[in-house]
Design a protein that fits this description.
Layout: H1 12-18, H2 21-48, E1 59-61, E2 64-70, E3 81-84, E4 89-91, E5 100-105, H3 112-126, E6 133-138, H4 146-155, E7 163-167, H5 170-179, E8 192-196, E9 202-207, H6 211-226, E10 235-238, E11 259-262, E12 267-269, E13 278-283, H7 290-304, E14 311-316, H8 324-333, E15 341-345, H9 348-358, E16 372-376, E17 382-387, H10 393-405
Parallel strand pairs: 5-6, 6-7, 13-14, 14-15
Antiparallel strand pairs: 1-2, 2-10, 3-4, 3-7, 5-8, 8-9, 11-12, 11-15, 13-16, 16-17
């Protein structure tokens, strides 16, 4: 960083003596050049911040930014459990197969929260004869006990079977907020009504105090109610800023997805496998025995897996050596031509997090290999680990793969 400049007071009558005629002419040019450079910097950074996984039809309507994004990229809301206004334990599995609108408030807020819930009261009445659920979570669980929430719900004529008011320990509430990438506390209640589909995907958000947004809510909610199966691969317009955004993974407390680079130097997003069962393994190219034998085993396994659409992922645990070009050469040397098999690499500490948090297998130093094969379901959840060297392991793994391929809805736990 350059040192700060100290400007000395110079009498006006001496200024013309300091600056030559050429310097005076150059100043406007320098100022214009500075402005152009600043504009160029802002333009480059704004483009760099665009969502590479969303289609290029992002647009702005009435100040609301929309983007069209594949359903595969919409975030999955993690299962949660809290206490309802009735005093009963409420688990999110009760919402499986039903779209729901979720919002956050506290009962004694006389303005913002009260107005929000009056809007929700109208919406709940409009959808009274449908399966659309409403979930309102308090931001002050110390005050908002089930008894307080029940009185509050009764004041809104909320029906417990359609509109749940939830409370619990604050850490549980904040953990739920992470599914929507929002920070929840009394000092910052959200302006949005968040809409989740039947399959647990966070699909859209709506400003509760905008009539156009509330009208759009009704249209989108009716669309979600009409869905009969997960719309894998289909795209939807949304104001959900999280949809498909490769936000900084290291800031997440726990990785449930990842971005790496494959042997062809293409970005590989774990959500790209949505709708397919996939098998993953950990290896490094300089391993002369175990990893090479395991790779040959997977080559032969591909011919024995009768379930269609299964994908394969091999993640290097030695990314400093295993660049995309090295991985590409490794494939060529072993005669691997399967398009559904991707070899991945990335930043070392990030891969360690993927191994420990996504696959549940901490690395014992760099260039680590594992004899386990990890089976991931159609929704991105690791559902089984199998040691390919153990007798009987393959048959058990193939049965699991076949069962997972037939799943039509994500697991609720």
């Amino acid at each position: 960083m350059s040192s700060p400049i100290t400007y000395l007071a110079t009498p006006t009558e001496n200024l013309n003596q300091v600056l030559t005629g050429k310097m005076r002419k150059a100043i406007p040019c320098i100022l214009w050049a500075t402005v152009l450079l600043a504009l160029g910097y802002l333009l480059i950074n704004s483009r760099a911040g665009r969502n590479p996984l969303a289609e290029e039809n992002e647009n702005q309507q009435d100040g609301r930014v929309f983007s069209t994004t594949s359903w595969n990229y919409f975030p999955q809301v993690k299962p949660f459990e809290m206490v309802a206004q009735t005093g009963d334990v409420f688990h999110s599995r009760e919402l499986a197969g039903k779209p729901y609108a979720i919002s956050f408030f506290f009962s004694y807020c006389p303005t913002h929260c009260a107005q929000l819930n009056r809007r929700l009261q109208t919406l709940s009445e409009n959808f009274r004869k449908t399966d659309l659920m409403f979930v309102s979570v308090t931001l002050d669980p110390k005050h908002d006990s089930p008894e307080v929430l029940e009185r509050y719900a009764n004041s809104l004529e909320a029906k417990p079977h359609q509109w749940r008011f939830l409370t619990d320990d604050m850490h549980k509430i904040q953990d739920l907020g992470r599914s929507f990438e929002i920070v929840l506390d009394l000092s910052s209640h959200t302006d949005d009504i968040l809409l989740v589909d039947k399959w647990g995907r966070y699909r859209d958000r709506f400003k509760w105090d905008d009539p156009l947004e509330l009208a759009r809510f009704e249209v989108v909610a009716k669309g979600l109610l009409a869905e009969t199966e997960p719309p894998i691969g289909l795209s939807f317009e949304t104001r959900n800023a999280l949809a498909g955004v490769p936000h900084e993974q290291r800031k997440k407390s726990w990785l449930d997805e990842f971005f790496l680079v494959d042997h062809d130097d293409r970005i590989c997003y774990s959500r790209d496998f949505t709708g397919n069962v996939w098998i993953a393994n950990l290896f490094f190219t300089n391993c002369p025995l175990t990893c090479k034998t395991q790779t040959e085993y997977i080559k032969s396994l591909i011919d024995r897996v009768a379930t269609p659409g299964v994908k394969y992922v091999s993640i290097s645990t030695d990314p400093s050596t295993d660049t995309p070009s090295v991985l590409r050469q490794y494939r060529q040397n072993l005669g691997i031509e399967h398009a559904e098999w991707r070899f991945l690499t990335g930043e070392s500490s990030y891969i360690r997090r993927i191994c420990a948090e996504f696959f549940g297998t901490p690395l014992m130093g760099s260039a680590h290999h594992s004899t386990e094969l990890f089976v991931v379901d159609r929704w991105g959840n690791v559902r089984g680990k199998f040691d390919w060297q153990k007798a009987g392991s393959e048959a058990e793994m193939l049965r699991l793969i076949d069962g997972l391929a037939r799943e039509s809805v994500p697991p609720t736990d």
